[in-house]
Design goal:
By secondary structure, the protein is mainly alpha-helical. It is about 85% helix and about 0% strand. The protein has 7 helices and no strands. The longest helix has about 55 residues, at about 95-145.
């Protein structure tokens, strides 16, 4: 009987040791609560998945976006607003062209009047030239008569 009792005590001791090992390997309620508080739920993971872009979507965006180099090339080849304003400031406007056209038309009228006056003056000079020749001829005739 003593032997049996010893066996029972040994078994109890062994069970106590096993119980301690189980206790040491088991999580406490507090540890489980901490894990629950810090871990994401399946629903939270699904929401994140729904809101995140896929690799394919990122690749499509990359394919459609300009690179920094392309932007620099565009910047280098494009005129700035200041350059456009300078060009605008130096270019003639429709109003400027209308004024130039009006000045050309007025100048054309003046030229026509001057041409007409020059024609009249040429006729007058021709007439005066003929008279002068007639007077010289008359004077020569008078001298000839007087010298005889």
């Amino acid at each position: 009987m003593e032997h049996m009792l010893q066996r029972i005590l040994d078994k109890l001791e062994k069970m106590g040791t096993e119980l301690e090992e189980v206790k040491a390997n088991m999580a406490t309620k507090q540890e489980l609560e901490e894990v629950k508080a810090n871990m994401a739920t399946k629903q939270e993971l699904e929401e994140i998945k729904a809101n995140m872009a896929t690799k394919q979507e990122l690749e499509e965006i990359k394919a459609n976006m300009a690179t920094k180099q392309e932007l620099e090339e565009i910047k280098a080849n494009m005129a700035t607003k200041q350059e456009l304003e300078e060009i605008k400031a130096n270019m003639a406007t429709k109003q400027d062209l209308a004024l130039v056209q009006q000045a050309v038309l007025e100048t054309n009228e003046i030229v026509k009047k001057l041409e007409s006056k020059i024609d009249n003056h040429e006729q007058l000079l021709t007439l005066l030239s003929h008279r002068s020749l007639e007077h010289e001829a008359s004077i020569s005739s008078i001298r000839f008569i007087l010298t005889k």
